Amino acid sequence: MDFDDTPDEAAYRARVRALLAEHAAELVHLDAGEEAADPRDQELALRRTQRVLAEAGLVGVAWAAEHGGQGGSLAQQAIIGQELARAKVPSLINHIGIGMCGPTVIAHGTPDQHERYLARLLRADDVWCQLFSEPASGSDLAALRTTAVRDGEDWVVNGQKVWTTLAHVSDFGILLTRTDPDRPKHAGLTMFVVDMHAPGVTVRPLRQMGGQSDFNEVFFDDVRIPDSERLGEPGEGWRVALTTLLNERVAVGGGGNDLGLSVESLARLAATKLPVLPADRQVLARQAVGRAAVAALANRYTGYRRLTAISQGGLPGPEASAGKLAGTAAAKLVADAGVRLLGDDAVFAVGTGDDEAGRWQRNQAWLPGIAIAGGTDEVLRNIIGERVLGLPPEPREDKHRPFNAGRQA
Amino acid sequence: MNFDLDQDQLDAAAGARQFFAGLASPAQARAALEGGPLAPGRQALADIGFLGITVPEAHGGAGGSLLDLAVVAEQAGAVLAGPSLVTAARAAVLLADQPELAAALADGSRAFCVVDGSAPALDAVGADTFLALVDGALVVAGGDVATGQPMDATRGLGVVTLTGPRVLVPDAAALWARARDVALVALAAEDLGTAGKAVEVGVAYAKDRHAFGRAIGSYQAVKHSLVDAWVGVEQLRSLVWWSAWAADAAPDELPLAAASAKAFAAEVLERAAETCIQVHGGTGFTWEHDAHLYWRRAKVDRLLLGDAAEHHDVVAGLVLAGALA
């Protein structure tokens, strides 16, 4: 047992660190959770940052060389993630494209689609989004209602997606549609690549509870998609979507990094705020800080076990769902301890300020979304309960009947 | 990064599981509540080598690491074995420069108990050799043990009055602190085993028991509470491994890791044991069922060697002093 890099990993880390230092002037550097004042400036800066990193060979390292990657390992991918965090480079703007859309195109797309999309995706020439959830199908994704109807060489799409992160800056998306409502809900789905600039696509940003707009509603009104943009066979959309969701688990289940502001941030805040509290309040604040630190450490070291498995060539299984579940809980403890240390400042801080109080408030207002996005806490508990502990599944009464019948019932 | 057990440790865990399966069980923990002997008992633990895992080979032990001991302690916890490997681990640190006493620890010829002032001491019942910190010095002593109605008889708890103390190490504060941290790790490791077993028993019942025409484990209310308990166990496993590793490989990290592990263990085991009872319904509340034996262990262990509040405060102090920097 050790926490050291293997010689190969250490050499790779040194190379990554040197490249990041070499290109430091060309990269956006922000504290986790920070944002530039102007969203458009921020978008352009983030696109430029990803392009610089891609040209340095640091984007999509685990992808095969034929797809524009480096043919590297998930362990190398994890090292890059750690080094980007260390250098305070924010998440890649195309993280959804790299983590979820790209692998889906690789697995189910045609050579022509590979040629047209993948290299541009890695360079953030095109930003991608994932058009899955709908107003009436969130956790129950296979109940989605957006339709695609064949018309000559095209499909015509009508419907609405929601909670679509990055849709407002995206150039392309992977779009899950219902093409055969007479079949059971999982069997009548088909996946496409959609041009987000096509006529009939309308993106409307949603304002989140914290005030920011990271995600959107997307409306499709008679949007024509050429059949050549289909991913997989008609009716095979659920299988294609599972590729996306498996890669989401790989993308988010790996590192054990803190979600939201780190426990180190809490330690720094506490070092200034806690000693000036009255003695009896200090006792209570120390309980909150200690409890949050223990939860964060437990999650961090559990993440190291997943990294070990990845380093030895394994893939995260359903147990990786536990990392997001516990990580969210730990992040809430850290956030709550931090906000409470702000004292009276906490109730006046708005989530947009650049001061410390604003940072902690923004963090607090962000975390409820983390407990929902990418699998709600409840869905993750079902996954762990059924696939790890082997408990019997929930009854799913609509699973085998035609989708139309389900809607009428 | 290689944060996993090695093959020797996996083999040791499997061997320990097999050893304990024949010699200790919740049934014996129940019998102990009515005066039965500890199982497997000190001599059996000594004979298999478990009391000397961390005693140097030159002193008759196996010269192993605390992590080696922790994987065995987890298996001991799963069957509520007694006496505790916490005492063996802690005494081995205190007796690092006492070859004869260390040998007597490893071969079971002396029954050790480590005493923290007037707090109830683990494995005091039946002990003949007591170690304590008196005026900054490590002493070995005899002792008079006052016991009560034990909540968990496998812990051998008693309040000890030392008799005839003899100084072993005059200036022993640092040694004592390290030994106490090692004890926290071993206790967390035993709790890990108990908590894992309580979840396993609860899951098995939830698959088997039917209500309203379905296995109760299919209901989210039951499923999710078992999942939360299981997630806690896996997170605790990480803290146990880290803290046990740190004891030998990164001693500077030991105080933070050990306090974290103990604080977390207290709450994880309590949750697992309470969930186990709840999932079983009325059956889980009976004397005959094993669930209350895990619960007894939880309710006692959470208070031993400092409760979660004490260790959260220790963690906060270390974090404020820059332990994460």
How do you describe this structure in short?
The complex is a heterodimer of chains A (409) and B (325). Chain A is of the alpha+beta class and 409 residues long.
- Round the Cα radius of gyration of chain B to an integer and report it: 19 Å
Question: Which shape of chain B, going by the Cα principal axes?
Answer: globular
Number of strands of chain B: 6
CATH A-level architecture of the largest domain in chain A: Up-down Bundle
Largest sheet of chain B: 4 strands, mixed
Q: Poorly predicted ranges of chain A (pLDDT <50, ≥5 residues)? A: none
User: What's the number of extended β-strand segments of chain A?
Assistant: 8
Give the termini distance of chain A in whole angstroms: 57 Å
* Element-by-element helix/strand order of chain B: HHHHHHEEEEHEEHHHH
Mean pLDDT rating of chain A: 91
What is the domain total for the residues of chain A?
Answer: 3
Name the CATH homologous superfamily of the largest domain in chain A: Butyryl-CoA Dehydrogenase, subunit A, domain 3
CATH topology of the largest domain in chain A, anyone? Butyryl-CoA Dehydrogenase, subunit A, domain 3
In helices, the fraction of residues of chain A equals 40-55%
Tell me about this structure.
The complex is a heterodimer of chains A (409) and B (325). By secondary structure, chain A is of the alpha+beta class. Chain A has 3 domains: 7-93, no CATH class; 128-240, Butyryl-CoA Dehydrogenase, subunit A, domain 2 (Beta Barrel); 253-388, Butyryl-CoA Dehydrogenase, subunit A, domain 3, CATH 1.20.140. Chain A has helices spanning 7-22, 39-55, 74-86, 95-108, 111-122, 237-252, 263-273, 279-311, 321-341, 356-370, 377-388, 403-408, and strands spanning 128-131, 147-151, 154-162, 172-178, 189-195, 201-206, 215-226, 230-231. In chain A, the strands form 2 sheets. In chain A, strands 1-4-5-8 form a 4-stranded mixed sheet. In chain A, strands 2-3-7-6 form a 4-stranded antiparallel sheet, with no helix packed on it. In chain A, helix 9 runs antiparallel to helix 10 (356-370). The longest helix of chain A has 33 residues, at 279-311. The model of chain A has no long low-confidence stretch (mean pLDDT 91). Chain B has a domain at 175-320: Butyryl-CoA Dehydrogenase, subunit A, domain 3, CATH 1.20.140. Helix content of chain B is 56%, strand content 11%. Chain B has 11 helices and 6 strands. Chain B has helices spanning 7-23, 26-33, 42-48, 66-78, 85-94, 99-107, 173-208, 220-249, 254-280, 291-301, 308-320, and strands spanning 112-115, 129-134, 137-146, 159-169, 210-211, 214-215. Chain B has a 4-stranded mixed sheet with strand order 1-2-3-4, with helices on one face. A two-stranded antiparallel sheet of chain B has the order 5-6. In chain B, strand 5 (210-211) and strand 6 (214-215) form a beta hairpin. In chain B, helix 7 (173-208) runs parallel beside helix 9, helix 9 runs antiparallel to helix 10 and helix 9 (254-280) packs antiparallel against helix 11. Chain B is globular. The chains are: A alpha+beta (409), B alpha+beta (325). At the A-B interface, helix 7, helix 8, helix 9 and helix 11 of A face helix 7, strand 6, helix 8, helix 9 and helix 11 of B.
